[in-house]
Design a protein that fits this description.
This protein is mainly α and 101 residues long. It has a domain of 70 residues. The protein is 56% helix and 8% strand. It is built from five helices and two strands. It has a two-stranded antiparallel sheet.
Length: 101
């Protein structure tokens, strides 16, 4: 069985899980847009994203302070944003754990 890694927003209102390989595919140097788009189409990931409430998602993303009110009105882009953040968080936490070991 492939190990799943979890991402949660600070409030815990949004949780996503994926493999480390999936997280790395969406978190790397350079533009990740195309890779995040592809990853968002993977069945297990797509199913999780489809369950996210647009208002909750926009409110959670607003905490990052990286997008303005107008940008946060685009739910499809918000799904891409949260997936990108999840990939980065998982990748970084695994790398940090490996460095400490």
């Amino acid at each position: 069985m492939t190990t799943q890694h979890w991402f949660s927003t600070s409030s815990g209102h949004i949780e996503l899980h994926m493999t480390l390989e999936q997280a790395h595919s969406g978190s790397h140097s350079g533009s990740c847009d195309a890779d995040i788009w592809e990853l968002s189409r993977v069945h297990g990931i797509a199913r999780q994203l489809a369950k996210l409430d647009p208002k909750t998602l926009a409110r959670e993303l607003k905490e990052w302070g990286a997008w303005d009110e107008t940008e946060l009105l685009d739910h499809d882009q918000n799904l891409q944003r949260i997936l990108w953040l999840a990939c980065g968080d998982i990748s970084d936490s695994i790398c940090d754990s490996a460095t400490r070991a």
